Amino acid sequence: MLHYHTVPVTPFQQNCSLLWCDQTLAAAVIDPGGDLDDILAEAQRLGLAFQQIWLTHAHIDHAGAAGEMAQRLGLPIVGPHPGDQFWIDALAQQSQMFGFPPARPFTPTRWLHDGDTVTLGHSTLQVRHCPGHTPGHVVFYAPEIRRAFVGDVLFAGSIGRTDFPQGDHAQLVASIRERLWPMGDDTVFIPGHGPESSFGRERRSNPFVGDRV
C-alpha cells in the first residue's frame, strides 16, 4: 500500500510530497522545489529510502532542488514531459527572478508521456499529460489509494495560472475535464499549493471548471 506525506517548501509553500510503499519503504519525492534539508529530515524521520525524484513540471518552486538532490543522493529524475524542456533550461533565470537559491541544472533521466506508468516498490502509478499551466505538465495517479498528485493543474476552488510563457487556458480546462475527471469523483488530489480536495467536490463547486461553468 502507498502512503504519502506533504512537506510545504520554498517561500511559495509548494506541496512537496513524499510517497512510499509500506512493504519496501522505497520512496519517491514529488516536486522537490527547495528546502532540501527539510525534505531529507522528514524522510529520515519516517525511515524512508528515496529511490526516485518525480517532477510534475519545471517551474522553480517545483523543480528548484531536483538537480542538487539528484546529485547528492545519486537519484534518477523522472519527468516531466519534454514540453517543459525550456523551463528546465531557464531554471537559473527563474531562481534569480524569484529570489531562490541557484538551481543546479539537470537533464531528466526519463521523460514522461501520457499513458506512461511509474513504479514504486510494489505499486504502479499512472501518468497523464495535462498541459495548460505549462506545456509539459504531468499528473501522477495512484488508483490503489484513489489519490492524484496534480501539481499546479487544479487547486481547491481554483485552477493553475496560464499567464506564464506557453500557458494556455483552454488547454488547461480541457486537461482537467478530459484527463482528471475520468479518474472519478471520489479521487482526492494533492495540489501544488494549498489544501487537498476531491475531483467530485471541484466538479460541483469550482468556479472555473465545475459542471455548471
From TrEMBL:
Q: Provide this UniProt record's keywords sorted from A to Z.
A: Hydrolase, Metal-binding, Zinc
Q: Which cofactor does it need?
A: Zn(2+)
- Which Gene3D superfamilies does the entry mention? Ribonuclease Z/Hydroxyacylglutathione hydrolase-like
Task: Please list the residue ranges that the record marks as compositionally biased, kind Basic and acidic residues.
Answer: 199-213
At the top level, the lineage of the source is Bacteria
Q: Which GO terms describe its molecular function?
A: hydrolase activity; metal ion binding
**Protein's organism:** Serpentinimonas raichei
What protein name is recorded for this chain?
Zn-dependent hydrolase, including glyoxylase
Pfam families in the cross-refs: Lactamase_B (PF00753)
